[in-house]
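A protein record pairs a chain with a discrete description of its three-dimensional fold. The following entry can be read in just this way.
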Amino acid sequence: MKSITQEQYELLHPYLPVQRGNVKISNLILINAVLYVAENGCKWRSLPREFGVWHTIYMRIRRWAENGVLDRLFEALQAHNLVRIKVECLGLDSTSIKVHPDGTGALKKTDLNPLANHEVDGQQKFIWLPRMTGVP
């Protein structure tokens, strides 16, 4: 797992907001949690307990994303050659999302015949942002 050391954090410190008050999770731990999610493609709820409470981390990252801090952080990570990141965006609309047959008004099938091969269902319609491409 790629994580940021204290020395590397000192390079990123100017790009981050100042921590005020009684903060239990440091910015260094928060950055490492974001890198863990980006590297492993997991849900926030699946973060290991070593990072702290997932909801606290998620809420701070959400605030950082809204205020542009997260963009500055990822630009700084790449500028200092700490990680390589490829950011992809995917737009979905109602034409590309599968709907359950009950949601379309179609008649229900009476026989149960589940597909043996789940790949027939098609490719999954999601991506993880950002996606780490490797360690420089």
Q: What stands out?
A: The helical segments are 6-12, 27-40, 54-67, 69-79, 101-104. Residues 1-136 form one domain. Residues 27-40 form the longest helix (14 residues).
